[in-house]
Specification:
The chain is an alpha/beta fold. It folds into two domains: about 70 residues, no CATH class; about 150 residues, Zincin-like. It is built from six helices and eleven strands. The strands form three sheets. Strands 1-2-4-3 form a four-stranded mixed β-sheet. Strand 7 and strand 8 form a beta hairpin. Helix 3 crosses helix 4 and helix 4 packs across helix 6. The relative contact order is 0.10. Bound molecules: zinc ion (ZN). The site of zinc ion has 4 residues, from helix 4.
Length: about 240
């Protein structure tokens, strides 16, 4: 039996707790976002896990800072073996030059294959990869909007994927229109789903008030975890808001 839950350790830190048939607790911090996971024996209760995590807080923070520093490295050059993220996972770029229309393909857990014509420069490669991200988001968004607009009994007239500098998403309540940040293609799918739920809840409640929070809690009890996941690692500099 494996049981997982999210435990809030401090206002800024929540951890994934996985209970399974093991003897000792293990704590690990994972790239790229510094997610913390504790594996605990089945009978250990939450308070013990919490104290265990707190006792290692200094180490956790150091690890997280390291990952953030790594990820704020130089801008992407779209070169061989460069790190790129897709749906929350890190891949290495493999550049394949071939005289055919460009495309991006994932065939293994390790590589994003970027097929380009010889002589395709960095800027063009970036455009090709971004269009692929956009296309991937466009496969998921309609399904998520359909699922959640049915759940909430709201109508979305229009949605678009946008390159936005400071927001993960926006909602135009009058026009019932949702914009989703292209960067979400790089984040775990539950984070995209959280953003969509958040924007859809705005169609019921404009402000981030108690009513808004109650709706989030009711329909997506883990929303804080996803929000943290999104905000832990800003993709561009600047304040991220919703
Ligand atoms: Zn909002």
């Amino acid at each position: 039996m494996i049981e997982t839950k999210v435990l809030q350790i401090s206002p800024e830190l929540s951890i994934d707790v996985v209970r399974k048939d093991i003897k000792n607790m293990h704590l690990a911090v994972y790239p790229p976002n510094g997610r913390v996971r504790v594996a605990a024996p089945l009978r250990i209760d939450d308070e013990v896990v919490r104290l265990f995590a707190i006792s290692r807080l200094g180490w956790i923070k150091r690890q997280q800072r390291k990952f953030v520093a790594q990820d704020r490295q130089s801008p992407r050059l779209y070169k061989e073996r460069e790190s790129h993220y897709f749906q929350g996972k890190r891949f290495l770029l493999r550049v394949i030059e071939v005289d055919a229309p460009p495309k991006v393909v994932i065939k293994t857990k390790t590589y994003i294959d970027l097929y380009v014509r010889p002589g395709t420069d960095t800027k063009q490669r970036e455009t090709i990869v971004n269009e692929w991200y956009r296309a991937e988001l466009k496969k998921l968004i309609p399904l998520l909007i359909e699922k959640w607009s049915n759940q909430f009994g709201v109508t979305v007239n229009d949605w678009q994927v946008k390159h936005m500098k400071t927001k993960w998403g926006t909602c135009n309540i009058e026009k019932k229109r949702i914009w989703v940040n292209l960067e979400l293609a790089k984040k775990p799918i539950p984070c995209l789903e959280y953003l969509i739920v958040h924007e859809l809840v705005h169609l019921i409640e404009r402000h981030h008030n108690d009513r808004f929070l109650t709706l989030m809690e009711k329909h997506m009890p883990q929303w804080k975890f996803y929000k943290e996941e999104l905000n832990r690692l800003p993709v561009s500099h600047g304040e991220w808001t919703y």
